[in-house]
Amino acid sequence: MTRGRKLDELIWLQLHFQRPVLPATVLELLHLWSGDPRNPRLVLEVRSCLTTQYLLGVPRRAESSVAAMVKQTIRGTQITTKDVYRPEVSHAAALRISSRTRALRTGDPEASTRAILAALHRVFGTEHAVIQIVLGPRKAARVVPARPMSRSAGIFGPAPAGHADSEGRSAQRTKESESGFDCVIRFGVNAASPQRRRSLMAGLLTAARTLDAPGTHLRLVPDRARRLNAGLSPWWWPMALNSSELRGLIAWPIGESDLPGVPGIHPRLLPPSDLLSATPDLVVTEATAPGHTRAIGLDVGASLRHTWILGPNGTGKSTLLGNLIIQNIEAGRGTIVIEPKGDLVNDVLSRIGRNRWNDVIVLDPTDEAPLGLNPLAGTGAPESRVEGLLSVFRSLYGDSLGVRSQDILHAALLTLARRGDASLAMVPLLLTNTGFRRSVVRQVAAADPIALGPFWEWYESMSDENRANVIAPLQNKLRPLLINPGLRAVVGQRKPRITMNEVLSGSKILLVPLRKQVIGAEAARLTGSLVVAELWHAIQRRVALPQNQRPPILAVIDEVQDYISTSTDLADALAQARGMGAGFILAHQYAGQLSPGLRAGFLGNIRSRILFSLAHDDATLLAKGHPEITADDLTALPAFNVYASLATKDGQTTPYAAGRTFPLTPAINDPEVLIKRSRQQFGRSLDDVEQDLAELAQTGLDPAETSGQSGRKRRSA
Predict the structure, then answer these.
(1) What is the DSSP secondary-structure string of 486-544?
(2) Domains observed in the chain
């Protein structure tokens, strides 16, 4: 009876292969092992119990060198040692080979691998199956001489008695011309019934016998389960196999085709870069690469280099945005959120801690007393504010705005901005109400006899009918802002209770649910664009502040294509924002939503990218320049899984890493409580705003002339 012996303690490594594994690289590794002069005992296992596991048992003294060989030869392989699962088997058997001088079939290792994995994968429930190969003494390759060999000449075992014929020498040459190992191959199973155990064993033998060749056959003999469980070496090595023969039996996941019980090639589980902080300020995801259970995220400095999130509906984009926003709020930093529906804002409101309730500001155009937005007011040159507004209208309406409409809008906005107490809702009044217009234009035109003075002279010279025809196209563009009472209340406030400058300087939390399903897509798009423009001008005005007085802020814009639809100076804008302490997270569903110019701006100037499962065209675009992933990886991602290529705080961009996003934490607030607080602190009732606008429309009074007076004088038209 053969007794097992344990040479020294084994350390069990779990191998996580990054497919596809090339058959040639597996053969190269076996050749390296067969030439290792230290001759360590190696135990290869493939186990099937719920999932397929690849294990490698090595003596402690050889652990680092053997692991290095694996990683250097089979690129992308991750090796873990923690929580290696090796349940004991109750029954075992060992393979025997009919000839030690004839080789097994080696021409199609992928076929034998597929057959063996299929046999292993037949287990269900608590059943377990394992194939174990213990590699013993190495066998160097040799040249088989042309003359007949004696019975004792073969290094893989004795040759047949007498003179070997030509075919026999050829078979021996095939066997011994490649290095290999003395070895023992064991099968082990756990199953409830003897019949089931026999069935599993028979399946494993049938799979292994796909390697049978003429004159060489495999069979099973009983073995003791304890030998397999301990990974023992035998006193006598029953088999001698060269490296090519072993490649067909170890069942490593070679080739590109689907294999039973083995994850597909895509998506690859890519590890995070060591350049990324292990304790980031903003946690994006949890690494899913084996052996890399850690957070992947951004430091504050890296967040200022901006982030692009791309993910269709249902992939988990909104959940990720909610987590990033809540983390930034909890850290006490200023946060601005612009989103089209309101669900994201509600998720955030329900999770804001009490210590930040006083900082919450909600700009909701459907609220009964909304926050005001007045891009015509504020510090800085009126010309700069007006140019920003013109850019919004040009980007939204393009050529349909028309040259004449742009000219009229420019003059009207500049006239009102120079007054200092006007609002955007007053533009139609200025163009259509003669009394109001004359009261506003008189001082402005006198102060600017070169541009605004002649413009308003021309405007007044037209007949009422001609004037109405001239401004009709522009009125159509302004109507979405004014036809909805809620929007009139937002843009009609001449002196909002808080400005964007105060939002940034006070590290406030500005939440803008545009609720386009209520106010309409065009009105939501225009309102969101105005908020973005006002935010951008407030960021620019930070240049007047010392660096230490620019607390970092994070601006999150979901469905960004609706509010930033021009590529003009995008690169400069993003670069300036970083210098002003502002980082943007720009999110949307697919790349086709961006114009070619804007898409190029995103690709060239946003350092961090977080990608959910994408359609093939987007996947192809975003995989370019990143050899670690392919389009197939991006299309194969399940929901709530991402590839993240993140910036470091010093500006380096790291390779894509695979991760799984976190669910939102449980809600702790009723959003209505915070909305009510915001309304009371910063809102103005719809009735008050509309009364102000109605009085202006009815009386045509100059607001500057009546400021501080208890009554109003009516002016004739």
Answers:
(1) HHHHHHT-SS-SS-HHHHHHTT-EEEEE--HHHH-HHHHHHHHHHHHHHHHHHHHGGGG
(2) 4-141+178-247 (3.40.462)
The structure tokens listed for 536 are 């951008």
Mean per-residue pLDDT, 585-592: 97
Cβ atoms of 656 and 643 within 8 Å: the answer is yes
- Tell me which H or E stretch contains 55: strand 51-59
CA angle 177, 181, 186 (to 5 degrees): 130
In tens, the pLDDT along 65-79 reads 999 999 999 999 999
Other CB atoms within 10 Å distance of the CB of residue 199: 14
- HSE-CB of 541 using CA atoms within 13 angstroms: 20
pLDDT per residue as tens digits for the range 181-195: 999 999 999 999 999
The residue among 185, 190, 193 whose CA lies nearest residue 123 is: 190
Tokens coding 20: 């596809």
**Rounded-to-integer distance, Cα 660 and Cα 328, Å:** 20
Using a cut of 0.70, tell me whether the model's pTM lies above it. yes
CA pair distance 317, 558, nearest whole angstrom: 9
Contacts of 575 (CB under 8 A, 6+ apart): 605
pLDDT digits (tens, 9 = 90+) for 525-582: 999 999 999 999 999 999 999 999 999 999 999 999 999 866 456 777 888 999 999 9
Task: Identify any residues that bridge with 79 across adjacent strands, giving them in sequence order.
Answer: 15
User: Which residues make Cβ contacts (< 8 Å) with residue 320, sequence separation at least 6?
Assistant: 284, 285, 309, 311, 610, 642, 661
What letter would DSSP give residue 248?
A: T
- State the Cα–Cα distance between residues 406 and 392, nearest whole angstrom: 12
Asked whether the CA dihedral 511, 515, 520, 522 is positive or negative, the reply is: positive
Q: How many CB atoms lie within 10 A of CB 2?
A: 13
**pLDDT digits over 451-486, tens only?**
999 999 999 999 999 999 999 999 999 888 888 888
Q: Quickly count: other Cβ atoms within 10 Å of residue 553's Cβ.
A: 28
Here the tokens at position 31 are: 């050749």
Give the pair of three-digit tokens for residue 54: 């690849």
Task: Give percent of the chain with pLDDT exceeding 70.
Answer: 93
Residue position matching structure tokens 């990683």: 71
Report yes or no: 123 and 246 within 8 Å, Cβ to Cβ: no
Q: How many CA atoms lie within 13 A of 408 on its CB side?
A: 24
Could you read off the pLDDT of 138-184 as tens digits, one per residue?
999 888 776 655 544 455 555 554 444 677 778 888 899 999 999 99
Number of DSSP helices (H) and strands (E) in the chain, helices first: 27, 22
